[in-house]
Specification:
The complex is a heterotetramer, with two copies of chain A and two copies of chain B.
Chain A lengths: L1 H15 L3 H34 L5 H11 L4 H12 L14 H25 L3 H9 L4 H11 L1 H17 L2 H7 L9 H10 L3 H27 L2
Chain B lengths: L1 E12 L2 E12 L3 E5 L6 H8 L7 E6 L2 E2 L4 H10 E4 L10 H11 L4 H14 L15 H13 L5 E5 L7 H18 L2 E6 L2 H7 L2 E6 L2 E6 L1 H6 L4 H6 L4 E11 L2 E6 L2 E6 L7 E6 L5 E3 L9 E13 L2 E7 L3 E7 H7 L6 E6 L4 E5 L1
Parallel strand pairs in B: 3-8, 3-9, 6-7, 7-8
Antiparallel strand pairs in B: 1-2, 1-4, 4-5, 9-10, 11-12, 11-14, 12-13, 14-20, 15-19, 16-17, 16-19, 17-18
Helix pairs in contact in B: 3-4, 3-5
Classes of the chains: A mainly alpha, B alpha+beta.
Chain lengths: 229, 358, 229, 358
């Protein structure tokens, strides 16, 4: 027990002294996950707006398919991106495997279904009458979609923050396409697993505390945004 | 001049046929009431008039042009015709931004928007509410914002779906008066869908009665009220006495009818042998204890079969060979000492009987 | 591309011929996750019933805390269990680290917050009047809780199935406390990551297809159960 | 014999005081109506009577024992007092299982349950519905299942919260009749909360009027209707004429009052100089064109200030020195040729004036 306690004290010491390695790993994690979140949001908001606004054959099915993708295991997404970017894969020529870019693409792919699904459900939970009212006041389709997105602004923000939370917490994709290369692709989740196994308990604990804190802030952020409604 | 015509509109929602062959035309500046029970298709009709929905068949003409099928003309119609939904929704934004919304869609300059919005808020009595979030308003205030927002572009026609369904009596009166005034001052055509016959009577120049998706009667409020064209309309406007009879004679427009063996007189031009329905409003039936000599052509004695008080009124069910309901004041009922089982005399004028073919 | 295609064909061959290693890993995954799900459900249903039924100071806060735990990263749970079970930890004496039992406990810990939270929200979304009606008909607290659980039976089943889906898809806990020992603690997710990195593409693909299929069945199961309402 | 008493009940919900010092007692076998506007505290009062809620202060006695504060007695009360909520909910199970639920809670044998449930379903007219899922029923059928479920244990009292709020007129009648019959046959005390004065009049032996959390009047329906104890009750039961006056003389119970300079006579025992409120029901005001000689002690001439039709009735606003509303039939209004601005005579009996202190 005392060993664990000492480990925790040393871990906190690493954090408060801004230990180079700790800061480096945490900062990389934030950048990679933020980039993948922005990438996913740029796809999800306009696409979600269109899917939600228009009525078309198979819409219900499409939304079901998107929701099914929520639960694709991270290692399956990781395996898919790994194979695409591997030397034998169709995008192997780009030489992206085991780079931060590969992790950004992989995480964006991982969080796109849930962000898109939550955006669509945020937009559909806007009173149907807002759509009709907007049209009856003379809006074009584009203007109407924009008005509906504005009505759902809090729920959509929550979807984006939640996507970020998923990206920064996941380990499967980062491990498989990032390769956990120290100083280059090692991020919080992969480093924690690695350092603990190698017996660097204090480093693993320091990184664990930071990751937990980020996850907590994200959750509180989502709650805060949702409660503004 | 008619500004809008609809021709043989049909609408299906899934397996349900909401509208079945509705045709009529709307005149410039009139207040047109669409009345009918809940679920009869009023809302669908308004949505088709505003082209928020596309009919499964039929045509909508606006300013003489067939807009059905042309996205450009449909969107032009929506820009010229305002609509306020049954439960009006406001945007999660300030009252000012709500009312300014249609102007901004049309890319008016900031200054013009400012002037128009302030004038309109003043007109509906919401001056000083500019910065309030519209979602925090009461039902009556929300209704005013929705009206202001629909009227700010000065539309040629305004479609209102149950505009006062959820309002208290005071707000109801304010809003009814505002709508009528706006229509008179700007020549705006108003279409009001309501399930309340009384509201139709108060506001409309003409009324269309819709029943199960069909437009069954169009006419002045008094025509609908006193001369319903079929049994469903009669029930809807409160005719409680619906009898069946056969014409036995016709002397210059005064017909004698055989109703369950009793002779009833009515003003109508029908041939002997015709099978008819007779409508008699319960408040047109006069009750007395002894046979009074009145000018009423129809006079019967009967037994009181039922007596129900509702508020200041008493509804008396009589058996005079045929069932008859009379609506009298509670006070009269008490003065006459009415009781179930007692005999009473009823009379009603020949003009109080409205007949239609079976 | 042809290499990938060949890999996929070989992977399907491994699946349809019931390759010993594939069957072994998949079967172990199912057993471990099923055990952790049962363990979590035994805690969550009665506890959720009590929390939902009673009014007490701090109830809202407690539910918020439970919901905050939804998003604790898997590696953080893994790190916690790892430290508890490590030789220096308070439960080190049990010698459970790097055994399937450790994985069961870890996964149960991981899915308890979401299963508990969803159970509570399933119970609270039962019409409040059911509670009052049950009491007014003369039920005791125990009888009333049971009646409410019966009303929410579909939503609670969905919460349990969803917990199972989370357990079988996660990689962080299994990797850290299982140790990925071939033939003993290796499960689908850890094996996929490992085999891909070692170049055994066809084995990784075979396991990936099986995991994806399980995740799909779970999702469809949740949807099916939810649509019965 | 009284089976339940409540003494000085207060209830807070957050910062809102829903009930303020309510006391009354319930007699064995009576039908007691609790009437009041929406939000006045009727539902809270019923919940306290059934001990689903605990009052913030005050006592509830059941069969002579104070149950407040004793979990055992509270649960015993709940087992002996049935309640049907305003929007009754049924379990997501068969009709049979719903109605059997209270019996199973009490561990009756399967055979006894079977017999009781079948008899009860027969009594409410749901025979043959046993296996239907209760959630698939219509509003009226759901209400019947809820009633059957509450009555299957033959409770000593049954509390009904707006039992017919969402029903069509036919179901309403069936259910009202069933409740009255069950009460008569089993001696069950019934408490009905309703916002409809008319329902209270139809069903209740005694009525308590609740306003803003306070029980302001208890009495027979006719007392509440004709002799409201304060202005709020008067408005609620439809007294539209509320005037202020001062007693000028009192001759053996016939008082003369000065109302805006006009002399009004009323039956009351008050002293000269007393400031009073006068209540006159609008249907008690008689209208004529010429001054008719009637036995009515009060007769005034005035000008018609407003005329509003509502269905078969006409509401006439008059200015006779003080404002007065008369409710007459539409037919009378038309026969008299009433028009805004015209002069008319009104009369009402001295007994039609109910006075209370200001």
């Amino acid at each position: 027990m005392t060993e664990l306690w000492d480990g925790l004290v040393q871990a906190l010491h690493l954090i408060v002294t801004f230990d180079d390695e700790v800061v480096d790993i945490a900062w990389r994690s934030l950048r990679v996950s933020a980039a993948s979140t922005v990438l996913a949001a740029l796809i999800c908001i306009p696409l979600g707006g269109l899917i939600s606004f228009r009525s078309f054959r198979g819409k219900r099915l499409l939304i079901n398919v998107i929701q099914t993708f929520y639960s694709v295991p991270t290692v399956c997404v990781g395996l898919f991106v790994f194979l695409m970017l591997s030397r034998a894969g169709p995008l192997g020529g780009l030489g992206l495997l085991f780079t931060p870019s590969a992790m950004v693409v992989g995480q964006a792919l991982l969080i796109t279904p849930i962000m898109l699904g939550l955006t669509i459900s945020a937009l559909s939970s806007v009173d149907k009458n807002i759509r009709d009212t907007t049209l009856s006041l003379g809006a074009s389709e584009r203007q109407a979609i924009w008005a509906i997105i504005k009505e759902a602004r809090f729920a959509i923000s929550a979807a984006i923050v939640l996507g970020f939370g998923r990206a920064i917490s996941e380990v499967g994709v980062a491990m498989m396409v990032g390769g956990n290369i120290r100083g280059f692709t090692q991020i919080l989740t992969t480093a924690i697993a690695d350092e603990a196994n190698q017996g660097n308990v204090e480093l693993a604990l320091a990184l664990g505390v930071i990751l937990l804190a980020i996850a907590l802030v994200v959750t509180l952020g989502v709650n805060l945004v949702q409660q503004r409604r | 001049m008619s500004i809008m015509q609809v021709i043989d509109l049909h609408q299906r929602h899934g397996s349900r046929e909401t509208l079945k062959g509705v045709s009529f035309s709307l005149e410039q500046g009139e207040v047109f009431g669409i009345i009918g029970p809940t679920g009869s298709g009023k809302t669908t009709l308004l949505r088709l008039l505003d082209q928020i929905e596309v009919p499964s068949s039929g045509r909508v003409y606006f300013e003489g042009r067939d807009v059905t099928g042309s996205p450009r003309l449909r969107s032009e119609l929506r820009r010229k015709v305002g609509m306020v939904l049954q439960k009006p929704v406001v945007f999660d934004a300030s009252v000012y931004d709500n009312v300014a919304f249609p102007l901004r869609l049309r890319r008016y300059s900031r200054k013009v928007v400012h002037g128009k919005v302030d004038t309109m808020l003043n007109a509906v009595g919401l001056d000083g509410y500019q910065r309030r979030n519209a979602r925090t308003l009461s039902g009556g205030e929300t209704q005013k914002v929705a009206l202001a927002r629909a009227l700010i572009t000065n539309p040629q026609a305004l479609l209102l779906d149950e505009p006062t369904a959820n309002l208290d009596p005071v707000s109801l009166k304010t809003i009814e008066e505002f709508i009528l005034r706006f229509s008179r001052e700007n020549g705006t055509t108003i279409v009001i869908a309501t399930h309340e016959m009384a509201q139709g009577q108060r506001l409309a120049d003409r009324i269309g009665v819709i029943m199960e998706g069909q437009l069954v009667q169009i006419g002045k409020p008094s025509e609908i009220f006193y001369a319903p064209s079929d049994i469903r309309v009669a029930r809807f406007v409160g005719v409680e006495n619906i009898l069946e009879g056969r014409v036995t004679s016709n002397r210059e427009g005064l017909v004698h009818l055989d109703v369950h063996g009793r002779a009833v007189e009515a003003i109508a031009n029908r041939h002997p042998g015709d099978e008819l329905h007779l409508f008699i409003r319960p408040e047109d039936v006069v009750l007395s204890l002894s046979e009074a000599s009145t000018s009423a052509r129809n006079s019967f004695s009967g037994q009181i079969a039922g007596l129900a008080m509702s508020g200041p009124l008493a509804r008396v069910h009589l058996d005079c060979g045929f069932p008859l309901v009379a609506l009298i004041t509670r006070q009269s009922a008490e003065d006459l000492g009415l009781q179930v089982g007692k005999q009473a005399h009823v009379s009603f004028k020949a003009t109080a009987v409205h007949v239609i073919g079976q």
